[in-house]
Specification:
This protein has helices spanning 3-8, 10-14, 20-32, 34-54, 63-111. By secondary structure, the chain is mostly helical. The chain has one domain (3-82).
Length: 112
């Protein structure tokens, strides 16, 4: 992913509108590109700062902590998606072998 692509996706990232296929390259890029991480941090600061100021809560604003939590949550979401894909492949494999064994057993009954 290029810096231009990453910067185009910052607003979608902050609004949780990136798919898993878009999220992984985005997270990888901003993790390795200081300029894009700074752009994300500034944009996040503006978004979350305005949201915090508009809320009725009287709490301390931890914008950098919120960004780190957001990135950690995104990585966890990617991990869950990866685990889900692996589990689907395992279940599909088990079903395939179960059906194959049943067919072989059925053919044994028919032939002998």
């Amino acid at each position: 992913m290029t810096c231009l692509d990453a910067r185009k996706r910052i607003y979608d990232y902050l609004n949780n509108k990136l798919s898993e296929d878009e999220l992984k390259p985005f997270i990888d890029h901003v993790g390795n590109c200081k300029e894009c991480m700074e752009e994300l941090r500034i944009t996040h600061m503006v978004y979350s700062g305005v949201a915090e100021l508009d809320s009725d809560k009287d709490t301390d604003i931890d914008i950098d902590g919120a960004l780190k939590k957001s990135i950690t949550d995104a990585k966890f979401r990617l991990f869950r998606g990866f685990v889900r894909k692996i589990m689907i492949m395992v279940v599909d494999t088990i079903v395939f072998w179960a059906v194959l064994v049943m067919l072989i057993m059925q053919f044994r009954i028919w032939i002998f």
